[in-house]
Amino acid sequence: MNYNLLNTSTTTPKQKNATYTALKKLLAMMSNERKTLIMAFFAIIINSSLNLVGPLIIGHTIDKYVQTKQFHGVLVFSGVLLSIYLFAFGTSYLQSKLMGGFGQRMLFQLRNAVFNKLQELPVAFFNQNKAGDLISRVNNDTDKLNQFFSQSLMQFVGSLFIMTGAGIFLLSINFKLGAAALCPALLLFIFTRTISPWVKSRNAINMKSLGNMSSEIQESLNNFKVIIAFNRRDYFRQRFNEANKQQYTTAVSAGLANNLFMPVFSFTSNLGQLIVLSLGIYMIASGAFTVGLLISFLAYVTNFYNPLRQLAALWANFQVAMAGWDRISQILALQNNLEPIPDSATNKSDSLLEFKDVHFAYPDGKEVIHNINFKLEKGKTYALVGPTGGGKTTTASLIARLYDATSGTIYLNGKDIRSYEATERTKKIGFILQEPFLFTGTIKDNILYGNEKYASYSNEALIEELKQAGLEQLLNRFEKGLDTPLKTGSDSLSLGQKQLIAFIRAVLRNPEILILDEATANIDTITEQLLEDILQRLPSSTTRVIIAHRLNTIANADEIYFVNSGQVIRAGSLDDAMEMLMHNKRES
Ligand SMILES: Nc1ncnc2c1ncn2[C@@H]1O[C@H](COP(=O)(O)OP(=O)(O)OP(=O)(O)O)[C@@H](O)[C@H]1O
């Protein structure tokens, strides 16, 4: 499955209905907000109606009371107008409050939905996408939608309402003149429909480049030590400058596209007035129309085109929001291709773990594992040795089902490894990675990560368990023991210390298969010996898979596999493995 979001744009012109489909999906997510939306809708309709009657009352007051100097009537209608304006203020406030709350709840829900989806996706997804771009989608793109919904949607509805009212008045006073006045609006409609996909694509490109810029910032912040050590500040400054420049260009282009609506809408409004004026004067001259009617007609044309002009700005916001939604829905539409599948009854294996005719290629790369076959038995220790880039980590990743084989089958306890639920599989297989990742929290939080069995244990009870497994000596190396605070990305711990915590975490889970991928590479020889003793004390049924470059670490292995150029060969003894490594070195 292709997880590369930048190669799966949903904004191609081919997908004509993409906006509407996206909108429908978005509204479906908001189904529990129906009551709020209906209330806000009525508030804006009442507000718009009040705004429509205002001028009528003013006209009526002038004609009936001002011209006849009946000041009592003027006073009464001023009071009526004041009440109307106060009521309009109330409905406008209510609408803003409802939609502001709705926007924030939607933002909260959307960010949760996108983040939860990210948690579900497999390693291949994260290999193919940059963290900076993903952060931009979770933060910026969701906010574009919030802005549209909290600020623009109901204005959109209100403007549409006033415009429709004015349009009906125009057509009912004089159909022919009304139709002529509305003609430019038809042209405008065609123009908007034609240009909208282009405007949306400008906005999509702009958001993509914003994501790209976030990736640049993220990369340089993550690797600041290397940048400083190699004095590459200029290089990153230049890369950031380029990304920023590109962002500037795409933002200008999107801004121009968004702002194109406004002058075009103003022009059509003026065109409408001009048509009414010229035709109206002609009709007055031929006796078919009156001056009074022409004045009210012009007022309605203004009432029709003014909200239309406002709609232009709102339409641009809508395009920005839809481009954002496209980018969000790309993530939401992804499926984890590592979901459990039904187990096929054939070709069962009698080993603890078996690779049968396994081939593997990374999603966007060439094949790196070629037709490998090997078995792991219960309780034995296996070593994977071989040159850098030979395929050891990839083989281990396949055992842990971080990826699925491109072809062939991997059996765990005789069942296709793909048929296990993730919780069951991760309980059986423990993996200590080359670069262990620790979360913000304490050592206790980190070693109990994903371990339900000990989640409710007190420190004392947990220390007792650690003692049983021989792990307490490792914990004692940290001043505050279980309560030692850790910070993500902080350098308060050495790599070796991090490896120790990852080791305790994996061993405490008591997995059936424990994979150590260069897990002791940064640990001193004495501590390494201690780890070796702990490994020896694991239950006799535990199978160990050790990947190591230092051959002394695999001296106790029952079986050694030589992994080179995507092939896994049984190496025999440690001496044979050494010979294979030396031979490989001489050849390369
Ligand atoms: N995420 C990835 N995407 C594409 N190719 C990858 C990825 N990870 C590894 N590879 C490629 O797969 C091949 C095997 O890599 P692997 O990490 O399995 O080797 P290794 O034997 O563990 O190396 P080392 O001893 O350096 O850890 C290499 O050619 C590498 O370039």
Automatic annotation (TrEMBL):
- Which locations, inside or outside the cell, does it occupy? Cell membrane
Pfam families recorded for this chain? ABC_membrane, ABC_tran
Primary subcellular site in the record, as a coarse category: membrane
Membrane-topology annotation of the record:
Multi-pass membrane protein
Q: Name the SMART domains for this protein.
A: AAA
Q: Where are the transmembrane segments?
A: 37-58, 70-89, 153-173, 179-199, 248-268, 274-301
Q: Which residues form the ABC transporter domain?
A: 353-588
Judging by the UniProt lineage, the source's domain of life is Bacteria
Its protein name is: ABC transporter ATP-binding protein
Organism of origin is: Pinibacter soli
